[in-house]
Write a structure and sequence with these properties.
Pfam families: MFS_1 (PF07690). With about 425 residues, the protein is mainly α. The chain is built from 18 helices and no strands. Helices cover about 80% and strands about 0% of the residues.
Length: about 425
């Protein structure tokens, strides 16, 4: 028996050594960078973005409805803003676990579970009652936020299985889905909420549409098995490694500050337009214009990112966002509101489209991409968590717009400065100005 065991052990050892040697001699799998299957995956990711972040980008419609109608007599603008800010936190923070789960090969579990939870949360939102803050918070803030978060990182990261040289372009194209969703869904929601259908049936109609689109997206998306790393490294080890990378740490700090002010127009632009005397019929389209023009911003700069670098493209975009937020204080009419929506849509779209490629560009190998994006977005999510409520508190019931505008604009510009510092360190390390 002992002889047999020894022979079995020896055979197993030789087999393991042969397997290891064979694995070491095999070339690393390379994404195809095109082909029918790759583009169908991109379409599936695009649809997922249309649904999930399209819902998130439409929160300004909900915020306006809650402040002026649904929660008007019971809660302040700052309290209501916590619903959207907690949703944003969870969209980003869930990526801490979703990114690691994706790297470990659990793509379908994340996408199917997150899609089901999102549709379920929207149907629960349609059952809420006016003035019942906790019902809206649980369904839209917590439920929908977690659902979007556990689908966002895998949906973006799976593109790294199919694209390498064109990865920034593919990610930029995919994020145009969230922009178009953020343009079309507000039209649908405003028409339903303020029409004969009403809030509850309107939310159910939106949930049904999203359910059908998510089914199509799930059928189109697929990871490449040979590209799945099955990464099982500990979170503590990954944090320790990433936090000793100065460009990464400074970039994360910059994104935290950026997130504190970046979403101010998405939350308050429609409300600001109405309070400045813009007719509600036009004000309802401010988010549509903003998200519509961001489609161009998400796709166009990514064409050049592969040659001159994502940092080089994203820094002017974030600087433009900060300047435009500060200029909001001087806007009082339809023409100014439309101009702001168009310009902010473009620059914010460029930032959103380049964000994931920028974070991923600091990964030393593809197996780190999901974890690096997840950890970075988690920290950035805390900036989004506190940014909108602070802006709402600074706004006060008297609607003192200059106070939240100053806070949000300076937060974005300070974050932009830290991104420039990170870019300088990366450029010096790599010995090239194009990063």
């Amino acid at each position: 028996m002992s002889t047999a065991f020894g022979q079995e052990t020896l055979v197993g050892t030789v087999a393991d050594e042969t397997k290891t040697e064979s694995e070491n001699t095999l070339p690393n799998p390379t994404p195809p960078d095109g082909g029918g299957r790759a583009w169908s995956v991109l379409l599936g990711v695009w649809i997922t973005q249309f649904v999930t972040l399209g819902c998130s980008n439409s929160y300004g419609v909900y915020n306006d409805f809650y402040v002026r109608v649904y929660l008007k007599d019971s809660f302040t603008s700052s309290q209501i803003s916590w619903i959207g800010s907690v949703q944003l936190l969870l969209v980003f923070a869930s990526g801490l676990f979703a990114g690691r789960a994706f790297d470990a090969g659990h793509f379908y579990l994340l996408m199917i579970g997150g899609s089901f939870l999102l549709v379920f949360s929207l149907f629960m939102l349609s059952l809420t009652h006016p003035g019942q803050y906790y019902q809206i918070f649980l369904s839209q803030g917590l439920g929908a936020g977690i659902a979007m978060g556990i689908t966002y990182i895998p949906g973006i990261a799976v593109l790294s299985h199919w694209f390498h040289r064109r990865r920034a372009l593919a990610m930029g194209i995919a994020t145009t889905g969230s922009a178009l969703g953020g343009a079309l869904q507000p039209i649908m929601l405003n028409k339903l909420f303020h029409g004969p259908v009403g809030f509850h049936t309107g939310v159910r109609a939106n949930a049904a549409l999203n359910f059908g689109l998510l089914v199509i997206a799930l059928l189109l998306m697929k990871p490449k098995p040979e590209m799945v790393s099955r990464n099982q490294g500990s979170l503590r080890r990954e944090l320790r490694v990433f936090m000793t990378d100065p460009p990464y740490v400074i970039m994360v700090m910059g994104l935290i500050l950026l997130s504190m002010g970046f979403y101010f127009p998405a939350f308050f632009l429609q409300l600001n337009a109405i309070k400045n005397g813009v007719a509600p019929g036009f004000a309802f389209y401010t988010l549509v214009i903003l998200n519509g023009t961001s489609i161009v911003g998400r796709a166009f700069p990514n064409i050049f990112a592969a040659s001159i670098g994502v940092f080089t493209m994203i820094i002017p975009a974030t600087a433009g966002c900060g300047i435009l937020i500060l200029s909001t204080a001087a806007i009082k009419d339809v023409a100014g509101t439309m101009t702001l929506a168009v310009l902010y849509g473009f620059f914010s779209g460029a930032y959103a489209g380049l964000l994931a490629p920028m974070v991923g560009s600091l990964a030393k190998e593809d197996s780190e991409i999901g974890s690096r994006i997840g950890i970075c977005f988690t920290f950035a999510g805390f900036g989004a968590l506190i940014g909108a409520p602070i802006a709402g508190a600074l706004l006060t019931p008297a609607f003192l717009w200059w106070r939240p505008i100053l806070f949000s604009g300076l937060s974005v510009l300070t974050g932009c400065f830290l991104l420039a510092v990170s870019r300088f360190l990366v450029s010096r390390k790599r010995g090239t100005p194009w990063v």
